Amino acid sequence: MPRSQNNVASRRRKKKVLKQAKGAFGARSKVFTVAKHHVDKSMQYAYRDRRTKKRTFRQLWITRINAAARINGTNYSKLIEALGSKDLQINRKVLADLATNHPKAFSEVVKFAMA
Questions:
Q1: Can you tell me the distance from the alpha carbon of 115 to that of 106, in angstroms, rounded to the nearest whole number?
Q2: Contact in structure between 64 and 100 (CB atoms under 8 Å)
Q3: Which of these, 31, 30, 34, 36, lies nearest to 13 by C-alpha position?
Q4: Across the chain, what does the average pLDDT equal?
Q5: 46 vs 30: CA distance, rounded Å
Q6: What pTM, to 2 d.p., does this model score?
Q7: For residues 42 and 48, what is the distance between their CA atoms, to the nearest angstrom?
Q8: Closest to 38 measured CA to CA, from 15, 10, 18
Q9: Which of 23, 24, 58, 97 stands the most exposed, by the fewest C-beta atoms within 10 Å?
Q10: pLDDT tens, position by position, 83-114
Q11: What phi-psi label fits residue 73: left (phi over 0), alpha (psi between -120 and 50 degrees) or beta?
């Protein structure tokens, strides 16, 4: 008895991979085997960088808070310590947003924390 092949499923799998590799250069978007390697590696980068993005945003927020805190006569570490001692629950994302978009509100928070 001859071996049956499921062409429908294999074509669907190949089309899915080639669609994911659509923006790649040269054979990476045309040749299935090369495209498959490219897509596998890109998925690894995507998984890794979803976690890295959280780190880089936290660094950005801390930098913005520190710059705004220095304008208001203190620094980042003293501000965070003062907020903790006053039991003020404002996260770094909100503080950075206040520092960049609402500097008067941020200065009020600094005054309250440092008082």
A1: 14
A2: yes
A3: 36
A4: 96
A5: 21
A6: 0.78
A7: 10
A8: 18
A9: 23
A10: 999 999 999 999 999 999 999 999 999 999 99
A11: left
